[in-house]
Amino acid sequence: MHVFLLVELSLAIISCVGRPVIMPFSFPKNAVLRQKTTITCVVSSGAGPFQFVWTHEGNSVASDSRKHVKILSESVAALTIEAISAEDLGNYTCTASNSEGRTSLLRRSFHRR
């Protein structure tokens, strides 16, 4: 008597689909004027590639001598402010988009002390 054992292997492929989901971010609570700070926008799920846009009070933030927008990886973008000034107070929004849609996360920035 011969016994045959048939083993079937199957691979599960998990794909990330859907619009980006942004992890909550915040500004340092102890940030002071003239101090350098960096905040990051991290996409935790969704199908890449992603495009990132930072806005301050509804206006697009472009890299200049004081502010730098940098894409750190496919799912992470950073905004660095070299020296916080009074004009940097207000609301910042990170928007991440892909072929499925876009997601924005707004945070209030530094507060006057």
UniProtKB/TrEMBL annotation:
It holds the Pfam family Ig_3. SMART domains: IG, IGc2. Residues 20-111 form the Ig-like domain. This is Ig-like domain-containing protein. Keywords: Signal. InterPro entries: Ig-like_dom, Ig-like_dom_sf, Ig-like_fold, Ig_sub, Ig_sub2. The keyword Zinc does not apply. Residues 1-18 form the signal peptide. SUPFAM superfamilies: Immunoglobulin. It comes from the Eukaryota. The keyword rRNA processing does not apply.
